[in-house]
C-alpha cells in the first residue's frame, strides 16, 4: 500500500554531489531584516526554514552548511525577531524567527506575524519552505497555524523532522504517523518528509540534495 507522505528517498550519487558542492561554496550571513523594505533584491532562488522556538533550526542550518556557528541559537526562545538572510552560490538561505514563544510581548508577536505573512505571500523567488518539526513532539497546534499560513500563501512546504536521534524506532514511527495525518489537510505540503539529526548527521545529505535541486 502506498504511504501518504513517504520519507524522502536517498539521493543519487549525482544529487548528493550537487548538494555537497552547493554547500561547500562560500556561505555568509548577509543581514537581519525587520521590515519588507529591508529584504535583499529577489535576484536568486531562496528557501526558508521555519519552526517552533527550540526546534533545532540553527543547529540544522549549521549542519547543512558545515559551519558550527553560522546560525546562532538564542538562549531565550523568541528573542530573535528578524528574518536572517544567508548567501550561498546562487541561493539565499532564509532563517525565519522561531514561533510559538510565550515570553515575547503581544505587540512584538503581532509585528512579527505581520512581517511573516508579508514575506511568505510577497516573495516571488521563494521556492520552498522547510518546516521543522521536533521528532519528539510531532505537529502541535502552533505548527498548524504556520502550515495553514503557508497554504494561504500558496508556498510549497516540506516537513523536516529534527532531533530524530532522541527517540527510538517505535516512537519515530508513531510520530511519523501523526505528522502524515496532520499533513493530509494541507494542500501546500510537499509529498515527502525528511528525517534529520543535526548531531548524528542523519538526513543532512538528503536535505542538501533537495535544496540543490531547487536552484
Tags for this entry?
35% helix, alpha/beta, 215 residues, globular, 6 helices, 7-stranded mixed β-sheet
In words, what does this structure look like?
The chain is α/β, with parallel strands linked by helices and 215 residues long. The protein has a single domain (13-213), classed as P-loop containing nucleotide triphosphate hydrolases (Rossmann fold, 3-Layer(aba) Sandwich), CATH 3.40.50.300. The chain contains 6 helices and 7 strands; from the N terminus they run αββαββαβαβαβα. It has a 7-stranded mixed beta sheet, sandwiched between helices. Helix 1 packs across helix 6. The mean pLDDT is 91.
Total number of strands: 7
Under CATH, the homologous superfamily reads: P-loop containing nucleotide triphosphate hydrolases
Distance between the termini: 33 Å
Please give the radius of gyration in angstroms. Answer: 16 Å
- Count of individual helical segments: 6
Main sheet specs: 7 strands, mixed
CATH class: Alpha Beta
What structural category arises from helix and sheet content?
alpha/beta
Amino acid at each position: 500500500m502506498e504511504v501518504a507522505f513517504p520519507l524522502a528517498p536517498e539521493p543519487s550519487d549525482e544529487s548528493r554531489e550537487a548538494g555537497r558542492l552547493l554547500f561547500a561554496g562560500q556561505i555568509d550571513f548577509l543581514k537581519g531584516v525587520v521590515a519588507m523594505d529591508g529584504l535583499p533584491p529577489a535576484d536568486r532562488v531562496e528557501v526558508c526554514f521555519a519552526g517552533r522556538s527550540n526546534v533545532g533550526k540553527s543547529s540544522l542550518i549549521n549542519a547543512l552548511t558545515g559551519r558550527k556557528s553560522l546560525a546562532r541559537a538564542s538562549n531565550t526562545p523568541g528573542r530573535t525577531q528578524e528574518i536572517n538572510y544567508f548567501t550561498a552560490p546562487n541561493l539565499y538561505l532564509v532563517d525565519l524567527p522561531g514561533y510559538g514563544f510565550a515570553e515575547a510581548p503581544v505587540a512584538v508577536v503581532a509585528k512579527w506575524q505581520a512581517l511573516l505573512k508579508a514575506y511568505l505571500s510577497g516573495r516571488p523567488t521563494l521556492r520552498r519552505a522547510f518546516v521543522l518539526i521536533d521528532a519528539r513532539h510531532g505537529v502541535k497546534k502552533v505548527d498548524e497555524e504556520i502550515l495553514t499560513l503557508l497554504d494561504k500563501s500558496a508556498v510549497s512546504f516540506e516537513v523536516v523532522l529534527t532531533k530524530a536521534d532522541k527517540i527510538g524506532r517505535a516512537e519515530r514511527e508513531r510520530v511519523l504517523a501523526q505528522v502524515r495525518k496532520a499533513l493530509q489537510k494541507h494542500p501546500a505540503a510537499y509529498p515527502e518528509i525528511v528525517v534529520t539529526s543535526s548531531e548524528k548527521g542523519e538526513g543532512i545529505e538528503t536535505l542538501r540534495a533537495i535544496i540543490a535541486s531547487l536552484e
